Amino acid sequence: EPEVTQTPSHQVTQMGQEVILRCVPISNHLYFYWYRQILGQKVEFLVSFYNNEISEKSEIFDDQFSVERPDGSNFTLKIRSTKLEDSAMYFCASSEVRRPGQSYEQYFGPGTRLTVT
Amino acid sequence: AQTVTQSQPEMSVQEAETVTLSCTYDTSESNYYLFWYKQPPSRQMILVIRQEAYKQQNATENRFSVNFQKAAKSFSLKISDSQLGDTAMYFCAFTYKITGNQFYFGTGTSLTVIP
User: Fold this and answer.
1) pLDDT band at A100 (very low <50, low <70, confident <90, very high)
2) What are the pLDDT digits (tens) for B69-103?
3) How far is CA B22 from the centre of its chain?
4) Of B4, B33, B44, the CB nearest to A110
5) What is the arithmetic mean of pLDDT over A8-36?
6) Which helix (H) or strand (E) covers residue B62, if one does?
7) How far, in Å, CA of B109 to CA of B88, rounded?
8) For a surface tag, which of A3, A56, A99, B73 has the fewest beta carbons within 10 Å of its beta carbon?
9) Which residues of A touch B45 (CB under 8 A)?
């Protein structure tokens, strides 16, 4: 069964450094998402992406964050200058194009644990 | 604002027994979708069961079923005949938007199935 994959599984970086988290969505999916989960807190929506542009973003997704689909398979989340509070698990997800009556299921990757020191 | 609340951070159940995980949500929308996702240790979240708000019948998937009470905005998950492989974090999630399809999650319930 197709799966969303993410790399790396764990990333350690120093405060102020740039990080890029990578995701390979399911191949026939056209909607892509990033979520994060700070330890002990809720999974929070960051951004959704469709047709090579941001569809929606949360207030968490400020100018330090950016997303890109650099080729036909990868979907990346970049944090330009990491802060201690960016330490979290980051989940990528993808879903099919919505059709009337279609369920709104998202398929999640295993996550990247980002530790900012 | 949309919120999802899971009031049970941890639960345990004996193997072969039944357990119910609670979830409540708040929304002013009339049409929406509810989900339960399971996240085994060190594994990705996988969909357990989904419920469309416009359907009155409770969804079932093998040993998993929901009790959807729309008026009470409650969406509990019942796991029957619990198995060791059911040990995981369970997340309740909600979505309604036509575009962007943002999911709103609860904080999760950690379920341990005891042999």
Assistant:
1) low
2) 999 999 999 999 999 999 999 999 998 865 557 89
3) 8
4) B44
5) 95
6) none
7) 8
8) A99
9) 91, 108
